[in-house]
Design a protein that fits this description.
- With 203 residues, this protein is mainly α.
- 79% of the residues lie in helices and 0% in strands.
- 32% of the residues are buried.
């Protein structure tokens, strides 16, 4: 059996559960379509805790996401693969454009953020990685990705987050750049808050 055949058989095994275990389908639809917003909200909340560690974590996550999704986009361009619902009869639970299937941007984005958080906060990071894994798995269940799309996306996200984290920890020029960006933002933030406080004092 070829790797492609094995990939399809594993896809079919998971996707067939959409017919056999229908009570999970609403959960899988939510995970596949909307759960990524929990990650976005989490990143915003971490940023506005206004601690230096959390802001460094968020900045690292965003830099990592840019790199990871950039790599994912290049792979999609050079190694185009049709979605499962184009090539096969599947249980498709969500609407999706018939664009490139490989690799999964959802898996890349979810794992790059989750791993970036885990590298700073090990305990809570496990929860984010579990959520990322659920999002990735749901994309197979709902019929829009093959397992290899998900695995590749998860690897891209994980490696991107790890590499950027290492860069900011061990390369002094990258550290200085990150410090300069955060310091500039914080000065602008303080200026805005001062203006708001002054305007209220005159009201």
């Amino acid at each position: 059996m070829s790797v492609i055949d094995l990939d399809y058989q594993l896809f079919k095994l998971i996707n067939d559960l959409a017919e056999k275990a229908t009570f999970f389908n609403p959960i899988m639809r939510f995970l596949s379509l909307d759960a990524e917003y929990l990650i976005y909200i989490g990143i915003i909340v971490y940023w506005f805790t206004r601690t230096n560690q959390n802001r460094r974590m968020v900045a690292t996550a965003l830099f990592s996401a840019c790199i990871g999704l950039g790599i994912s986009g290049l792979l999609a361009h050079f190694f185009y693969r049709d979605r499962p619902f184009i090539a096969h009869t599947v249980f498709q639970l969500i609407k999706h454009p018939a664009n490139a299937s490989f690799p999964s941007d959802h898996a890349t984005g979810a794992f790059v953020i989750a791993v970036a958080i885990w590298l700073f906060h090990k305990k809570i990071g496990r929860v984010w990685i579990f959520l990322a894994a659920c999002i990735a798995f749901s994309r197979i269940w709902t019929g829009v990705h093959y397992p290899s799309d998900i695995i590749t996306g998860a690897l891209i996200g994980t490696i991107s987050a790890w590499a950027v984290h290492r860069l900011f920890v061990h390369w002094k020029y990258a550290q200085r750049l990150l410090d300069a960006i955060l310091n500039l933002y914080e000065r602008l933030e303080q200026t805005v808050w001062k203006k708001k406080l002054n305007s209220r004092s005159f009201d």
